Amino acid sequence: MTLQRVKLLFNGRWDENSQYHDFRDCDAYIPSNSSFQQFVEYIQGKLFPSGELTISRLIMYWIGSSNSNLISIVEDKYILWLMLMLPDSPEIDLCVVVDHVSSVAQNSQNTLYLNNESTNIDQSFKHPAGNNEIVDSQDFDVFQSGIPIRVGLPFSSKSVLKKAIYFLALKNSFELTTTRSNKTSFEIHCKDMSCGWYLRASVYRGGGVWIVQKFIDNHKCCIDIVKDGHRQATSWIVAECTKGTSESSYIGLPPFSTALIENNPGTYTTQEFDDEGRFKYYFIALAASIDAWKFCFPIMSVDGACLKNNFMGTLFSACTLEGNSQIVPLAFVVVNYENDASWSWFFRNLKAIFGDSNDHVIMSDGHKSIAKGVSSVYDFAEHELCAFICIKTLLRTISHVQL
Ligand SMILES: [Zn+2]
After folding, report:
1. Among 271, 273, 263, 329, which residue's Cα sits nearest to residue 296?
2. Relative to the CA of 244, which of 43, 109, 351, 373 has its CA 20 to 30 Å away?
3. How far apart, in whole angstroms, are the C-alpha atoms of residue 111 and residue 133?
4. What's the CA-to-centroid distance between 122 and ligand 1, angstroms?
5. Exposure of 22 by Cβ count < 10 A (0-12 exposed, 13-18 middle, 19+ buried)?
6. Model pLDDT, residue 192
7. Any residues with CB less than 8 A from the CB of 38 and at least 6 apart, and which?
8. Edge-to-edge strands of the sheet including 53-62?
9. What is the pTM of this model?
10. How much is the pLDDT for 144?
11. How many angstroms separate the CA atoms of 350 and 260, rounded?
12. More confident residue, 275 or 141
């Protein structure tokens, strides 16, 4: 699960120009695929862990901007939008203002402010495993900075244990090597085997619970191992995050894209949502495909295939042949509907990545939206029907001809 840093402003006051002043602030790390309800619950848990106050209003706010940019966060689509807008940099200006009322003053129109200082906030945010409760996958949502692994800590499954270890590796940028992994024991070292970092865990009395038996959290390895460390951990976590429901997979596309690009520099992805923030299109062209195109025949074959998940939709693809006549996939798009607009969107992105020239040919079946899309987007490339379609049409035509 990818965590997004969200800057929370609170304990401040609004002036007559809808500017927020004299606030306190803190960072919260919130799963980027959170629903509105989960988003509020994370903030509630972060700011008011003992439930003394209830959040009544969340507002997106650009510091120093005019009031035209104040946006109330009221449902899931605003969270999705917020996660898309948040840049992955510490110089963030987009913030979430937490207005809240106490549980005994629900009818108050004005903001009541925290009595306690924000310095107490993090201290009151304790991990349940501190009481030797079993660490479960939900704990990653609660404990945003990672599970504090220690000897004796129980995990509900091997997968949860690995997730905690890989989050730690990701956070501290080092790479790992698994030296033993079976039904009863798990051992993992720093990639540099001469480094002392080591963890060993085993299953508890044949049950499903895994307990950390030995943990040396101390690196002596060289800087190169540490520097290159994100790749393996990110891949594992991306794979974990992409499991789940169709809904969570669609919401998880932005963080998925970020991780994909980080691990495959030069990869191109883009997406489009409708006016209500619902999924429309998602385009992906891997860096390897983009590089390979330069060495392939300038002939692209495009086609669409119906998807069979809950939301249906269509998968568009473009591929070509390399010099050894092997198929090279170039780009994929998932669209809500196959029509003129979606094919044109696909071709606009294809053209942006793979270019347009006189010797460029786009080959397809006889779908009218493809022909329309190519003619509206490309200036030089030609559209041709594939040989199979041509022969089929020819045979249909000549079957009526008396020779
Ligand atoms: Zn190390």
Report:
1. 329
2. 43
3. 37
4. 29
5. exposed
6. 84
7. 31, 141
8. 24-31, 3-10, 94-102, 53-62, 71-72
9. 0.44
10. 57
11. 19
12. 275
What DSSP letter does each residue of 61-73 carry, written as one string?
Answer: EETT--GGG-EE-
Q: What residues contact residue 259 under an 8 Å CB cut-off, 6+ apart?
A: 2, 234, 237, 238
Task: Using the mean position of ligand 1's atoms as its centre, give its distance from the Cα of residue 225 in Å.
Answer: 7
Closest to 58 (Cα-Cα) out of 76, 74, 77, 37: 74
Q: How far is the CA of 188 from the centre of ligand 1 (A)?
A: 11
Which tokens in the block code for residue 311?
């939301």
Cβ neighbours for 283, distance < 8 A, ≥ 6 positions apart: 268, 269, 270, 271, 331, 332, 333, 345, 346, 349
Extended beta strands in 240-360, E state: 268-273, 279-285, 299-306, 314-321, 327-335
pLDDT tens digits for range 146-166: 788 888 888 888 888 988 888
**CA 193 to ligand 1 center in whole angstroms:** 8
What HEC string does 135-155 produce? ECCCHHHHCCCCCCCCCCCEE
Residues 6+ apart with CB under 8 A from 341: none
Question: What digits encode the pLDDT tens for the residues 13-72?
Answer: 777 666 777 778 887 778 878 888 888 888 877 777 766 666 767 777 666 555 445 667
Q: Are 139 and 156 in contact (CB under 8 A)?
A: no
Report CA(195)–ligand 1 centroid distance (Å).
Answer: 5
Tokens of 345: 């969107």
- The alpha carbon of 176 and the centre of ligand 1 are apart by a number of angstroms equal to 8
Using the mean position of ligand 1's atoms as its centre, give its distance from the Cα of residue 196 in Å.
7
* Contacting residues for 380 by C-beta, under 8 A, at least 6 apart: 356, 357, 358, 360
For residues 78 and 71, give the distance between their C-alpha atoms in angstroms, rounded to a whole number: 9
Looking at the DSSP bridge assignments, the partners of residue 155 are 135, 210
Q: What residues does each domain of the chain span?
A: 3-120, 128-238, 264-394
Nearest to 189 by CA among 212, 167, 217, 161: 217
Q: How far apart are the CA of 305 and the centre of ligand 1, in A?
A: 46
Dihedral over Cα of 279, 94, 234, 1: its sign? negative
- What is the Cα–Cα distance from 199 to 217, expressed in whole angstroms? 8
The rounded Å distance from CA 197 to ligand 1 centre is: 5
151 C-alpha to ligand 1 centroid (Å):
19
